[in-house]
Amino acid sequence: MKRPKAPRVARPLTDLLSASDGAGSLLVAAEQLGRLERDVHALLPAALSGSVRLAPPREGALVFLVANNALAARLRQQTPSLIDGLATRGWLIRTIRIRVSIATPEPQKPPKEARLPRQGLISLRDLRDSLEPSPLRDALARLVARHSYGGTRKP
Length: 155
Hints:
It is built from 6 helices and 3 strands, in the order αααββαβαα.
């Protein structure tokens, strides 16, 4: 004879992640890294704070990921005060390593090739011709010349 199955009850994801088995350590580690990152960014000057990402600390070493060598050099000057500041906030960080993490550049977008319709170009010419000499008339003349066929165009 089969036993009736207990109905399955949905559990919140946070309950699953904070359980004592393997997934629980993931939530704890993520929360800890978030707190560490907030403390690091609070200690860094504003000019550096937005350009620094953290890797999880291992064996008392904190790893910073920066975009270029100039940021790495500026950050190296801050490491002694960062280690002291983190120690006062309760973090046991003995060393700070800095790695340049070069992201792949995004492909360049082709320049826009906006063209005025023929009637729009005629209207702008008429407006240009009806104006007295002024900076507005000069700007309209440049616009008409740039969008006219055979006119001067920006490279």
